[in-house]
Amino acid sequence: MNKERFLALWQRTLVTAAKDAEQAFTTLEELYAAPGRHYHNGCHVQHCLLWLDRYRSHAINADAIELAIWFHDAIYEFQACDNEQRSAELFLQCSLGADQTLRRYIYDLILATTHRQPPTNPDQALIMDVDLSSFALPWHPFIKDSVRCRKEKAFLTDPEFFARQICFWESLLARPAFFYTPVFFHEHEQQARENVKRMLELMVERGYDCSLNKQCQSA
Question: Do 90 and 74 meet the contact criterion of CB atoms below 8 Å apart?
């Protein structure tokens, strides 16, 4: 994780909380390096930052998106369902003293990465697309990321894990568009949809479906 980049970002964006930059970085570095993090780790943050850099000109407040990227998976407990919420709250704790309106804006950007609701502004759309940009990778890198995600859920059986994944993948395909921002749609929509459809075909061949996940949700 690029400490110099983070400190520069923090100091120019959260001016009145600049003295807390070192501690904030240390906290994030320790969290992302926790044992068992095979996908939601510092490499995922770096991947997202590279994609943000690629499309930075499409942001309204690129620095706010970047801070949200740094924090969006900071809390990642493998069996929890409120990781993004707790990550957003961690950001608020680390940024005490900074502008309240900006802090709330970044907080909402972090929550957007739950992908449970459509974005309410262009920056939320961009961070959501950046967070899912691994779906737009060529097939073999995409599969490698899928394997890393599977390792993080070792407590689930294959039928349980893939039932959850299938439901998520199907929800993405059910959108009018996989990606929300016009540039992502134009450049990456086809690749992402092809990857997901191919994965779903593989799961069907192996006898997996999302019925088990639906049963668990209703229990």
Answer: yes
State the distance between the two ends of the chain, measured CA to CA, in whole angstroms. Answer: 41
**C-alpha dihedral sign at 28, 169, 191, 201:** positive
Q: Which residues contact 130 (CB under 8 A, 6 or more apart)?
A: 48, 51, 52, 55, 65, 69
Q: What's the one-letter identity of residue 22?
A: E
Token pair of 26 as six digits: 């240390």
- Domain residue spans of the chain: 1-131, 134-219
Residue with tokens 């859920």: 153
Tell me, yes or no, if the pTM score tops 0.85.
yes
d(CA 156, CA 199): 19
Cβ contact 65:45 at 8 Å: no
- Determine the average pLDDT of the residues in 48-70: 98
pLDDT tens-digit map of 142-169: 999 999 999 999 999 999 999 999 999 9
